[in-house]
Task: inverse folding
């Protein structure tokens, strides 16, 4: 794995830029632990101070330091994206691999469920959940809801690969070597769908973070937990743009765009290398 | 009943292609029967062109495909009654496959020896005196290889002929009574092909394993098999002793096949 | 390849060959993620094809036979690279290969003089267009006559190859594999090319159909007098149609003679093994296998590439490459065990 990363670093400009951007985002979220102010407290610093040496990114109208607020927001937003991606990948992998390998009525019924999830309109459902749950809507619950809405399309991709793998001779060899279904799926087929999992993980994070920001900006999330979207929500509430407090909106926006571009570049460059076929070609095997 | 190793009773297989209502039904195998004797191991060739149903038939014998009608009995046990995982494992213990493409018979991303050790672990009760390494090495020796040549190797590091030998060694580790080989030499280079074919003869003569040899090649079928069955569009057109059938084919289709087989004897055409 | 080489094309009984290949070297060069590989797929091959003959090339997978015809056809794209040697066509003198000729010249000779039937080319016909459009798309621009005249030519050509003109109205999927392959060959030969390069034209076809396609190839030679270079791994195919046969092993041509001569009197130990190990119907003699496997061309053995598997290997085989010498009229062979004088 370290070898792969080293090669990627050496040969892919996209990977270098993407990794640098994500490194900055990660650094920001790590810095949250060193914040001198608790994230939820207001009026801890003088309000509306423009960026200066004391307050690097300025302060908000609520008397919060934008830089330290941003570190918490970054941490929560990245954590949110990872949680959604992780849970939805697990769902997509399990259902996709199993459905594609088993076929028959199992496949048909699982795919019927899958297709239902694909056509459900997302934003109205999420807003509906917010109005039903109101104050009980924590970020973890939101992550769970979004994960259960975000697996369906990728499960179909994985199922397609699993179906072609089922037709390969080595699947039969494994079966006649006495492997159980679970062993075949995990040991034989999983490596072949990992490229899909990797690239969709990053895409899924972009999707979930984007959706979370949208919801937060509109005020449909738990606004007391600082997230990137939450920061922009509060800035809008205090009409920051009109009042000339541009730094309150500009820095969170730059941070989220940086994260998006970083994730996207990583997805593009890693996909090129993690694909087992190109990996095999690089050491001279046939796929 | 139980003196038959394999009893295929009038099996048919129909595939449905297309939707539920507009589906097209294709009969891949029509009413085929064949019997293998348990006491007398033999190489039984199923010969046909593409679309003859020979691969579908071999997949039914391997219990990968379920027949639409008819019965398959192996060692007196109806394959349709195999329901639990343990039943299936017991069946695979006695019947093992060998496939056409040796480069795809093993996962290209995994080491070869894991399949060998896995087969040994799953099918052979552990015996304190024989370590898995010894058992695998012995199976590889039967096919002219050794564990030293195979361990820690990936499939792409071996030639097609060597891989097919490993595939046979893997099948042997389950200690089967029947091996079903679907076109096992059609993707193997000419200079290596005959040694694989010879290996089948050795398995029959020395280990008493019956082999179902599925092929389109009449010449190798003549060379290795004891009995032969020629299929066309899902039906059997002619079957019997390999030498009798191929030296003097009766059915027009068998004769056509026999004539179309490109004989390397230029002298014959001079 | 050394000075003692007999150059092909200096045959007294024939005019200049239509195609001659001299010391051709083509390598696959890859440099991926810092791993450099140089696979010597074709390593010093020389041969000549006469007018109107069917020349066969036989060999196992990775013997370089497909790379050889690709190089002759000028289909050289990275990672494949021509390292040395020349390919001369009688109708394209002076350039030493399509690769070096100007684009206009290449366009002039494609289809009219040289046709290349690639492996599996019957599967590249556009599935949503009738075969007639394939003929119009590919061949019409090269003919330069009225559309009506072209239609007539196509029908006449199909009739000559014993194909029904109704195939023109069919979509590719409506035809069987054998019919598609025959239509592809008809398409490749519509302009009556001087040289047809056919790479495994009958692989993947059933035996009965295979025989029909081979008969068609012989028919083309008879009807329009083309020379054919036929690549096949199947010696039965060569026995059926080719006049002369070259055997390739690990990127080199190791033996070449009239097909009948190869089957009756093979000289190279590898060829001898190939011929003697072929099972024949009606012959119960046990055959023997050959030890070892073809070498890895990224790191081939020094000297004669067959020596690790050769029953007649001598000391000299381990470090010196045998030259291809003409031992009997028209029978060229690269082996020290046969060409004793060279070894001494």
Result:
């Amino acid at each position: 794995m370290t070898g792969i990363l080293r090669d990627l670093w050496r040969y892919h400009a996209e990977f270098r830029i993407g990794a640098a951007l994500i490194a900055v985002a990660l650094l920001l979220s790590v810095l949250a632990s060193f914040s001198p102010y608790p994230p939820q407290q207001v009026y801890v610093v003088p309000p509306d101070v423009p960026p200066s040496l004391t307050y690097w990114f300025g302060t908000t109208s609520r008397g919060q330091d934008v830089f330290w607020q941003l570190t918490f927001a970054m941490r929560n937003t990245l954590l949110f994206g990872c949680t959604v991606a992780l849970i939805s990948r697990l769902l997509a992998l399990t259902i996709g691999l199993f459905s594609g390998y088993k076929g028959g009525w199992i496949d048909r019924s699982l795919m019927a469920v899958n297709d239902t999830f694909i056509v459900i309109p997302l934003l109205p459902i999420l807003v509906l959940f917010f109005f039903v749950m109101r104050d009980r809507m924590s970020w973890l619950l939101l992550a769970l809801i979004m994960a259960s809405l975000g697996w369906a399309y990728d499960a179909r991709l994985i199922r397609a690969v699993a179906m072609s793998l089922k037709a390969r001779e080595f699947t039969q060899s494994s079966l006649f070597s006495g492997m159980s279904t679970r062993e075949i799926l995990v040991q034989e087929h999983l490596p072949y769908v990992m490229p899909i999992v990797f690239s969709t993980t990053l895409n899924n994070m972009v999707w979930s973070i984007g959706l979370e920001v949208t919801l937060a900006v509109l005020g449909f999330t738990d606004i007391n937990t600082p997230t990137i979207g939450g920061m922009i929500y509060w800035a809008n509430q205090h009409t920051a743009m009109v009042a000339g407090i541009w730094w309150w909106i500009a820095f969170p926006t730059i941070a989220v765009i940086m994260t998006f571009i970083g994730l996207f570049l990583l997805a593009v460059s890693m996909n090129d290398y993690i694909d087992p076929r190109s990996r095999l070609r690089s050491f001279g095997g046939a796929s | 009943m139980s003196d038959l190793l394999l009893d295929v009773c009038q099996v048919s297989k129909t595939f449905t292609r297309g939707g539920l209502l507009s589906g097209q039904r294709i009969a891949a195998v029509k009413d085929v029967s064949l019997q293998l004797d348990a006491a007398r191991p033999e190489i039984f060739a199923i010969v046909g062109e593409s679309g003859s149903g020979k691969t579908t038939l071999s997949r039914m014998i391997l219990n990968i495909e379920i027949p639409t009608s008819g019965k398959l009995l192996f060692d007196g046990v109806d394959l349709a009654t195999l329901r639990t995982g343990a039943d299936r494992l017991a069946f695979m213990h006695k019947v093992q496959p060998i496939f056409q493409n040796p480069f795809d018979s093993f996962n290209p991303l995994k080491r070869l020896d894991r399949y060998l050790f896995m087969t040994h672990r799953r099918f052979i009760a552990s015996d304190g005196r024989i370590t898995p390494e010894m058992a695998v090495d012995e199976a590889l020796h039967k096919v002219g290889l050794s564990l030293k040549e195979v361990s820690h190797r990936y499939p792409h590091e071996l030639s097609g002929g060597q891989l097919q030998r490993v595939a046979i060694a893997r099948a042997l580790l389950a200690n089967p009574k029947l091996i079903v080989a679907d076109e096992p030499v059609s993707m193997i280079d000419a200079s290596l092909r005959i040694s694989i074919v010879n290996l089948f003869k050795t398995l029959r003569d020395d280990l008493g394993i019956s082999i179902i040899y599925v092929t389109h090649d009449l010449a190798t079928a003549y060379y290795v098999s004891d009995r032969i069955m020629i299929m066309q569009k899902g039906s059997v057109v002619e079957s019997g002793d390999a030498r009798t059938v191929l030296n003097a084919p009766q059915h027009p289709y068998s004769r056509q096949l026999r004539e179309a087989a490109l004989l390397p004897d230029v002298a014959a055409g001079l | 390849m050394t000075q003692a080489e007999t150059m092909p094309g200096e045959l007294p009984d024939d005019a200049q060959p239509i195609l001659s290949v001299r010391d051709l070297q083509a390598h696959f060069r890859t440099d991926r993620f810092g791993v450099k590989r140089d696979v010597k797929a074709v390593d010093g091959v020389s041969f000549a094809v006469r007018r109107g003959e069917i020349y066969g090339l036989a060999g196992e997978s990775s013997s370089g036979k497909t790379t050889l015809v690709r190089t002759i056809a000028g289909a050289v794209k990275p990672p494949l690279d021509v390292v040395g040697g020349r390919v001369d066509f009688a109708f394209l003198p002076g350039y030493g290969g399509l690769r070096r000729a100007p684009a206009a010249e290449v366009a002039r000779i494609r289809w009219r003089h040289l046709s290349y039937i690639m492996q599996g080319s019957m599967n590249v016909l556009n599935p949503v267009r009738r075969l007639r459009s394939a003929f119009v798309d590919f061949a019409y621009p090269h003919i330069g006559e009225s559309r009506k005249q072209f239609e007539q030519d196509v029908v006449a050509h199909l009739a000559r190859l014993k194909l029904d003109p109704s195939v023109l109205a069919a979509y590719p999927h409506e035809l069987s594999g054998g019919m598609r392959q025959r239509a592809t060959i008809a398409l490749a030969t519509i302009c009556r090319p001087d040289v047809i390069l056919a790479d495994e034209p009958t692989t993947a076809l059933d035996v009965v159909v295979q025989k029909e396609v081979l008969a068609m190839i012989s028919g083309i030679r008879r009807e329009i007098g083309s020379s054919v270079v036929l690549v096949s791994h199947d010696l039965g195919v060569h026995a059926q149609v080719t006049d002369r046969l070259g055997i390739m092993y690990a990127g080199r041509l190791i033996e070449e003679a009239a097909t009948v001569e190869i089957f009756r009197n093979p000289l190279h130990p590898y060829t001898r093994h190939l011929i003697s190990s072929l099972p024949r119907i009606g012959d119960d003699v046990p055959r023997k296998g050959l030890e070892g496997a073809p070498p890895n061309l990224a790191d081939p053995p020094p000297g004669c590439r067959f020596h690790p598997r050769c029953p007649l290997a001598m000391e000299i085989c381990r470090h010196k490459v045998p030259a291809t010498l003409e031992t009997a009229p028209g029978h060229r062979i690269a082996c020290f065990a046969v060409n004793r004088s060279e070894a001494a």
